[in-house]
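Question (not urgent): is this output format expected?
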Amino acid sequence: LKLTPDDSPRVLTQQLLDAPSPANGGPLEVRSLYYGSGTDAQRPQFKDSVTLKTKPVDASAFVSMTPELAKDRSKYWGFDAKKFPINGRVWYPVGTGPFPLVLGVHGNHNMKDFSEPGYEDLGRHLASLGFILASVDENFLNGAMRNENDGRAWMLLQHLKAWRGFNDSSASPLRGKVDLHNIGIMGHSRGGEAVGHAAAFNRLKYY
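Got this back:
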């Protein structure tokens, strides 16, 4: 086996872009808030500290679990699959907008090690550049549950419905600030799979 000498330094020097580094923060001031259904037994930010109140949704058709597992999860979270909350952490720029909206959804993990705070650095960074980022909470679908990813995807679409309301409500600090014609959804690991499912569901007449 004869190896070709490494020419990556020469190749990479030809791939530079004449543009600002995307790692640099933007000029806009960033604010944050929580939205949620107010039913979370574990996290006060989604119970007592929500700026925008949302209605729980019935996701029982999209998830399956044993009665024992359902009982344990309901006891821990304070709700069951018939009343899944629409919870999210938001970072948004100060300004009149409208700003593009990005929904990010975390991967599968121990449900008690909450995953949705992990997007904070990215959220603040994108908000400084003129985007709204919402880190979608789906921790209650994490852990030992299986065959639940349709539920993750469906929940993502329920968040988009909620965002239409946030943009329209006169009581919302985000009223008129959301560009509903420029929306991105993203995720990693199990959340990335949910994004693909959500895009497929969004082509259906009903979901």
